[in-house]
Amino acid sequence: MPRNTRQVKDNYDESEDTHHLGQQRNGKNRLCLTGKRASEEDLPKFDPLAHRLGTYGLIPLWDKGVVLQYRFDERSLRRSGRTKQEILKVFHKAISQWGDAVPVMFIENRALWDFEFVVREHKDCDQSGCVLASAFFPGGGQQKLTIYPTMFDDQSEDDQVETMAHELGHVFGLRHWFAKLEDEESGGTWRSEAFGSEHPFTIMNYGKDCRLTKTDKKDLKLLYAMAWSRELTDINGTPIVLFKPFSAHASSPNRKNKPC
Fold this sequence. Notes:
Blueprint: E1 18-23, E2 29-35, E3 49-53, E4 59-62, E5 67-72, H1 74-80, H2 84-98, E6 105-108, E7 115-119, E8 125-126, E9 129-134, E10 143-147, H3 149-153, H4 157-171, E11 174-175, H5 180-185, E12 195-198, H6 214-228, E13 234-235, E14 238-243
Parallel strand pairs: 2-9, 4-14, 5-6, 5-7, 7-10
Antiparallel strand pairs: 1-2, 3-11, 3-12, 8-9, 9-10, 13-14
Helix pairs in contact: 2-4
């Protein structure tokens, strides 16, 4: 039975800039900035449902046939000492892990872009841990996929790909599985449901339970298939809204690169 997440706010904004706390399998605290801060003690308060969706009173997903165009913030690359090649290597591996469940295509286009890769020069740490990355949810604006030094400096390549797969989950419309905590903190102002199979392991979790599974991919494919066919237009009254990207509403230069 499909289920899903909702937050009620006045206006939808596909960007998020607060924290969620996570822990890598090596026991070190790591943060993903796409969502709201939660503490380790809070996480076991509810069942680990596979996926949580929706924000600001709607469920944002991508329309069928979307191509997301990206560019790199060249200045941030120079300052960080990272290269496009090493970032794209991780990015492409993460896309490959999601396989045929990926609901969009990606192409580099510096002239007309939907999101840009920003690579931070300095770590962002507090008593909770260090930030790895932040992403965005589906929407029609120009957004950022931000990478912090901790992602490369303190992670193996496998963990880097896992982190990027997690961030892509947000880009596809998925929230952290413990997003229900936000509803509890809101005192009932926000309401959440869940979509997908109940399973203790999901890429949208943290720590030892954070892994991309067949269930993750199956549920994402099902969600988009039902949304695109309009078999599913809302979940418990929360409307599904299909977005076209920023680039679709502007004149695009001829694409020289093949989408991936």
